[in-house]
TrEMBL record:
Name the record gives this protein: 26S proteasome non-ATPase regulatory subunit 1
Any one of the GO BP annotations: proteasome-mediated ubiquitin-dependent protein catabolic process
Source organism per UniProt: Gongylonema pulchrum
Keywords annotated in UniProt: Repeat
Residue ranges constituting the 26S proteasome non-ATPase regulatory subunit 1/RPN2 N-terminal domain according to the UniProt record: 15-227
GO cellular component, one term: nucleus
Superkingdom assignment: Eukaryota
Membrane-spanning segments: none
Length: 231
């Protein structure tokens, strides 16, 4: 068993795998079998290796499924470029993430059951970018993946909530998202605006107009008149 561990570890290196993947592909079922063996200590690394081989074969569905099986062995941050094979790991990681997002977005649109492992991977993407404080990226990704919880999280983490909300309203109004989801997002943004000490009434009215709530727009305008607030 130790010998198999060493082989898996050796092949899990693009410098070794790139020139040999075609031969390794002949043993793909064996590598997958090692992953399925719960007594094999490197089973998750075996899944990662199998994912890389599937990627080389152009089987992106298989590569994604095996990357999910690899759990935390699949790293969101690519390994450093190699002198021999360049940014091979970056290309692999980016392709898996791209395919994961496409699969996730399609499932969300169709209201299909989502693989919990895929959900965890998408959550890892959000967590990474939240830690980096790339909040605009988080919101863009949240809109694409229909994750209103992450819109809320990004807003709560922002040091300039009003600006971020105003930018998000503009992005939603310019987008081609379906009407039902757009209404959900605009309603959320309106409620978030209402929590601010100094809300952007123009953006709030834009939300209400798109939500077809003219009475609420009139109420805001009346408040502006009565309190003499100037836009």
């Amino acid at each position: 068993m130790r010998e198999k561990q060493l082989i898996i570890e050796a092949l899990d290196d693009w410098d070794v795998l790139t020139p040999t993947w075609f031969e390794v592909a002949d043993y793909l079922s064996v590598i997958e079998g090692l992953h399925e063996n719960e007594n094999f200590s490197e089973r998750h690394r075996a899944a990662l290796l199998a994912s890389k081989v599937a990627y080389c074969l152009g089987d992106y569905n298989g590569a994604l499924n095996l990357a999910l099986a690899a759990e935390d062995k699949f790293q969101l941050t690519p390994r450093p470029s190699s002198v021999l094979v360049g940014s091979q790991d970056e290309q692999y990681v980016n392709k898996i993430i791209e395919h994961a997002l496409d699969t996730y977005k399609k499932a969300k649109r169709n209201e299909d059951t989502i693989d919990p492992r895929l959900e965890r991977l998408i959550n890892r993407l959000f967590e990474r970018n939240m830690k980096r404080r790339e909040l605009r990226y988080v919101i863009g990704l949240a809109l694409d993946t229909r994750r209103t919880d992450m819109i809320m999280a990004a807003f709560k983490a922002s040091d300039d909530q009003a600006t971020l909300l105003t930018e998000t309203v503009a992005k939603v109004l310019e987008s081609q998202m379906d009407r039902a989801f757009r209404s959900i997002v605009l309603d959320l943004l309106f409620r978030l605006f209402a929590e601010l000490d100094e809300p952007d009434f123009v953006s709030m009215c834009q939300c209400l107009i798109k939500l077809e709530k003219p009475d609420d727009v009139a109420e805001i305008l009346q408040r502006l008149v009565s309190t003499k607030v100037i836009f």
